[in-house]
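Hello forum,

I keep getting stuck at the same step: I have a sequence, I want structure tokens, and every attempt I make locally crashes halfway through. Rather than fight my setup again tonight, could one of you with a working pipeline run this one for me? It's a single chain of 254 residues.
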Amino acid sequence: MAAPQINPGDIAGWPILKITYRSDAEKIAALLPPGIDPGDSPNVHLNIYNVPVPDEPEYGVVTSVDANYRGTPGIYAIGYGIDQESAILISREMNGQPKYPSEIVYYRMGDRVTARCSHQGYTFVEFDGRVTGVASERPDYEQDEWWVKVSRAVGGAEKSYDFPPHVVRVHSTYGTQHLEDVAGTLTLGHSPWDPIQELLPQRELISARLDTPTFLGREISLEGALDPDAFWPHVDTIGGSRWPGEMGGPRRKR
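Reply #2:
Ran it on my machine without issues. Output:
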């Protein structure tokens, strides 16, 4: 499998650093709104990337968990921390994509791979590893990702919505240009703004890979409604993420 070709000096189109670790099933279940069910495995996925959006490099980190909707397996997006302001509000307004601002450091020097993700002065994800070799080829694959589009009523009345919560299905199809295995250490840092260490603790690092995908197709569709009353405890989030919050910020200790 030949390595992908890029132009000298390009800073977009790098491979995605895909990290999967095992967490606690009950922790994942607590983050999922009623109507979206935990997947078969309590896995958390961190995709750290640099891709052009729409035509300039966007550095980001996607945090998601295995989850099923109406019997269809997929992943539920907890947050997209990105460094490009223009994509944040429009993505959430149109499709419910949980984007929020973050500072991302991600690079490869020789065989060493380094990533660091920060928000509001707190570093919540760090990874340091080395490429161990080219992975075996894999076929094209499909993935369903679940977002939630919702808008609370003007004035903030209890359990009142201008648009009640609906699931958004993101169905994507990929090929693989190049795939490399990485051995390394994932560190989850304390952060009130990205409480991954507390709410999705790492129990076992399952895999880390550098994946250069071919994007074959993507369809975004509005699916069914979620129970609006049951969803209410999940409506207040930290910024644009799906981390549980209070008035848009971290929940206060009581």
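The mean pLDDT is 93. If your local run keeps crashing, start a new thread with the error log.
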